Amino acid sequence: MRGTLLAIGFLAVATATKNPNCTDGLYMIVARGTGEPAAASKDGLYPENSGSPGYLAQLIAAQIKDSSIMGVEYAATLNDYVQSENDGANVMLQLANEYHSSCPGSKMALLGYSQGAQLVSDVLCGGAGGDFNHNAPLSPDVVKNSGQCLLFFRESAQADLDLVIAAVLFGDPTHIANTTYDRGTSVHNGIFSRTNNTVCKKYTDRMTSWCDKGDRFCDAGHVDAVHGLYLQRYNSTMVQYVVERWQNLTAFSATATVTSTSSRSSGGSTSTKTASPTNSESSRPSTGIASGLTLPGWPLVLLSCGIFFI
Length: 310
Hints:
310 residues, signal, alpha/beta, AB_hydrolase_fold, 6-stranded parallel sheet, two-stranded antiparallel sheet, Rossmann fold, Cutinase, Cutinase/axe, 2 domains, carboxylic ester hydrolase activity
């Protein structure tokens, strides 16, 4: 009987009732820029409290089925900017934590423009320092680890463990030039450049910050018009970045083959339960990882799942 695998925790997760507030697609939390209206556009280009990042999110949602968009409700004002930004960062952090708590394992993206981009960087990397909030960043467990029962992961991308799959910032006043996640033509730091980007560097694989030379806010430049040109210049590139992240990280999460053996003897019977994949990974040869368990060529990770060998 020692060869028998009882995947109790796995079965419990598989049969759990889905929360109706959870999306099967990408859940995008977006923060509008300073002065952008809170009301949804009458032409449907962006939802409530989302502004120009909401327009970008709509383009992404058009390519990722069953996605949803949540705008951050905050002042987004230049008057009392510090309080506005601090409040907005707190709201965005709460939205991310609440969605993760209600929908563990669901995938999120954070999008922000101008002051909204500063919200995103504060939530993902921690407070910018100076007069701004010094909040701790979003927990790494929320960014990369669902904390629920997972049997395996793909070693190169850890697809099943990635939750905040992308962060897209443009015109961020806390921008730091020449970082690994920097995009655009900027060569200078922003007017409120971050005092520490240690955590940001850990998310180079999922974070991009667009800033162009001359931007008054993210590049400390003197060309006002630059700050409003990011979607005109880069919207297709930004959309492609998020969609490709989604496609790459969800392409390998559909299959697991569990084999239980009732006896260690050569005459023992074997039964197999298989969840069929919906992608090209089905062509991978099965490789025995451990006694009683077969997976399609991936290393095994046993987390706290209530799985026992008896």
